[in-house]
Amino acid sequence: MVRGLFDNPWQLVLVLLVVVLLFGGKRLPDAARGLGRSLRIFKSEIKELQDDGTSASPSRKDPAKRGEPEALEGRIVDAPVADREKQTSTDRRPEA
After folding, report:
1. Is the Cα torsion angle 28, 31, 37, 41 positive or negative in sign?
2. Contact criterion met (CB below 8 Å) for 51 and 57
3. Could you give the CA distance from residue 9 to residue 65 in angstroms, rounded to a whole number?
């Protein structure tokens, strides 16, 4: 399917011209930079997935070395804001 796509150099020139007209000259470098970053991230994720399949990497075992936060233990207290305001207003004594 892709083999005969750009046999003629004029086809490639026409496609490049359409891309320049659509995106403009100012946005093309930013788009290329973003595409390069995305491909680099994608490549590193694929490599990491392949490494995970063959052996357990030490960076996965120790979250402190990877810069990930450690799991914290604690109690979550969930009180709506309106209830807290009501409590503080009833605790106050009216001035007489």
Report:
1. negative
2. yes
3. 51
**Contacting residues for 31 by C-beta, under 8 A, at least 6 apart:** 23
More confident residue, 87 or 20: 20
Per the listing, tokens 């007209």 go with 21
List, as own/partner pairs, every contact residues 38-47 make where C-beta atoms lie below 8 angstroms and the sequence separation is at least 24, other chains included.
none
Strands (E), 1-96: none
pLDDT of residue 46: 94
Per-residue pLDDT tens for 26-85?
A: 888 888 899 999 999 999 999 999 988 776 545 555 555 566 667 777 777 776 666 555
d(C-alpha 38, C-alpha 40), whole Å: 5
Using only C-alpha atoms, what is the Rg of the chain?
29
